[in-house]
Amino acid sequence: MAEKKRLLIVIRHSPYGSSLAKAAVDVALATAAFDQRVELLFTGEGVLQLMPDQDSQRLGVKNIGRQLASLPLYDIDRVYVDAEAAERYRVNLDAAAVAVERLSPHDMHRLMVAHDHLLGL
Hints:
There is one protein chain. The protein has 121 residues and is of the alpha/beta class. It has one domain (6-53, 60-120): DsrEFH-like (Hypothetical Protein Ychn, Chain: A, 3-Layer(aba) Sandwich), CATH 3.40.1260.10. The chain has helices spanning 20-33, 64-69, 83-88, 105-114, and strands spanning 6-11, 37-42, 79-82, 101-103, 117-120. Helix 2 (64-69) links the parallel strand 2 and strand 3 (79-82).
């Protein structure tokens, strides 16, 4: 049996500024549902998706944090975050809906090179 290709989805958009943030998570869940190896990297404004206790009711949209909490159910257990962006936006990663691994810019580059496919949203 051939080894599965590795897909890294790079999430760069804030949670509720556009539909791209939700689309990225939806793509990850759909791809993983078809038994593909999916990993996520939150960078730039995308790290804001990891903020705990998001109140999306006022906007009339679903809470992205709840979707992120379901990642392990889809065997998406490798989630990375741009440590510098998380610090810049003051995101408490210890309280995020999903466990993340903090990466430096150098480590993010190595991560991207190690994957077969990249999808940036």
